[in-house]
Every structure is written in C-alpha cells, then in structure tokens.
Design brief:
alpha+beta; D-amino Acid Aminotransferase, Chain A, domain 1; D-amino Acid Aminotransferase, Chain A, domain 2; 2 domains; 9-stranded mixed sheet; 8 helices; globular; binds 2-OXO-4-methylpentanoic acid
Amino acid sequence: MLQLLEIELTKNKKQQPAADQLGFGNHFTDHMFIMDYSTDNGWHKPRIIPYQPIVLDPAAKVFHYGQTIFEGLKAYKTDDGRVLLFRPQKNIQRMNRSNERLSVPELDIDTVIEALKQLIAVDKDWIPTAPSTSLYIRPFIIATQAQLGVAPSTHYQFIIIMSPVGAYYTEGVNPVKIFVESDYVRSVKGGVGEAKTAGNYAAGLKAQELAKEKGYSQVLWLDGVHRKYIEEVGSMNVFFKINGVVHTPALNGSILDGVTRNSIIQLLQHWNVQVAQRPITIEELYEASRKGELEEAFGTGTAAVISPIGELNWKDDVLVINKGLTGELSKKLYDTLTGIQMGKLADPFGWMVEASAVNV
Ligand code: COI
C-alpha cells in the first residue's frame, strides 16, 4: 500500500482550455504520476511530478514487442464541489487482468487508488464542470528494459496522465454511423482482444481509416473465425434493443470487458429490462430490422459514455436504426449514468468513489 508520495509541483502552470475547446484527449493537466518497477525491487518510487516528456532508451522493449497496457477512467466535480471517480477498482482489476495476459507485473489496487486520489487532488482545478465534460484519466504501463531479446521486460514504468475532455465523437451524444468490417479482424479467442493493450487499437486503425473515408465514425468488428458474430465497435461495446429485450455480445475471450458495459447491464436489470448476453450474428440483426423489431442500438465506453448508433453499413447494405435518431432507452441510460457520475442522482450501486478526501 502506498504511503507518502513524493510530490514535485510545477512552477509553470499551463493555461487551461475553454470548455467548448476541449474535444477528447487534446489537453493535459499540470502533473503526472510515475512509479518504477524492476524485478529486484518490485514497484517502487511512486511520485507526482510536473507533466513532462519521458526519456527512454531506443531499445526499450515497449517499442519493439509492444508490452504495454492502458486504462481509461473518469473523474467528475459535483455541484457541491466533491470529486468523484467512477468505479476505479474495476479499471485497476481489469488492468491487472491485461497485465497477466501480457506478462506485466501486477499492480497493488490500493496503491493505484491512492495515487489517483493524490494526483487528482494536485490537479483538481483541471476538472471541467460544463455539461458532458469530465477529467479523463489514462493510467498506462510500458516495458522499459533496453534489451532486444523476446522475453518479458525486467523493468517497467507505470504512469498516470489526465486530460480534461468533452464528447469523444464530434457528433456529441447524437447517433453515430458505423461501418461493419468484413475484411479485417480485431482479435480471436486466445489472442489479446480481452486485454487493453495498444496492439488491439493499432490493428484497428486501417479499417477505421477506410470507414472514415466512406463517412463512418467507427467500425463494428465481426468475429475472426466465422466472420458473422458481432464483437465490438472500435472504442465501445455494443447493445441492440430488439422487441423490448436488450441484447449484447457475451464476453467470449476476444472482446473487452467494458466497465460501462457492466454498469449498463446492471442499470437495465435494476429497471427490470431483460438483458441477453449471447452470440449475436450480423444476419439476425438485419433480419430483426427487416421485421421492424430492431428498436435501438447504442455503444458504451468510458470515453464515449453512451453513443446511440443511427446507421450500420454491412457490405453496402445500409440499415437505418430508429430513423437515425437517439432512442428513448439510450437517452434514459445516458441521463441516468451521467447523473450518477456527476453526483446529481442517487448511486444505488455504490459505484462512485470520493476522491476529494485527500488534501495536498
Ligand atoms: C475508453 O473508453 O476509455 C477507451 O479506452 C477508448 C479509448 C481507446 C479512446
């Protein structure tokens, strides 16, 4: 468990961007957290320092063999000035599952929570308060050993940076158009699809670029073996409301176990809406639409929150969902989830963790 953190405050505070200039991931706060690992000393030397470039040896393993993990979570400032984190333990637990898959050493959950709290306390003035804004937190680990043999690194750095953000998509909370990818695949069971590691995202860029050229925001991935089961969207899990029941692909070893996905399932069940976690084929989705049974579709993710899907394109067959408008359930989920996150609505699930108890 982390005790006293070494803190070096910046002498040059940056100018903060206006709320309408935020976008996603463009601006970074004044400080960052950093901690080292070596096989001899384990995780050690936790510290908060001014936000700055990191210096790495060109032979650092992260550059060559991609041993790196990241997470994404958010902090919010409530109207009465409290700072709340959304389910931080879930992200750190998932980080440890990703670590395990990529042979990266495990993190102590309490240490990371304490690091988050202290870093947020130092940069709390950076948490935006305008509607649909928040402080996005990006913890990540990189393999730093300078050695070219293909083997797990003996040295790592765990770093946390923070970015005040607005909506992830330029559409804001309006429906996005998604291209169903038929040529490229993201992952297969037994691979690293379940891990939050950079390679999964790098592998998706080509398809995303091609989809963008055709006017689509992201791609919807199909499974890598049969090329027919729906997996996930570039940065979101997906849900479909068909005949009153909400369907989402079951966690099958190749898709991400999203924290927002898990929260939406809990919320729906709390409202007595039936949720089916199962393999879903793209054909049956089109069939449901033809029969007039596909009522809504939306994606979920930390960055995107709830993003309604207004259109799918699969092999040039365009499927418009709910007339391209935001569905009633998607809107209710968005309002409820963000209401809980901003401390405006009751939190019956005990999701929010107060970060403002720390004085720095
Ligand atoms: C998140 O929602 O935190 C993600 O990881 C998406 C990110 C790749 C932008």
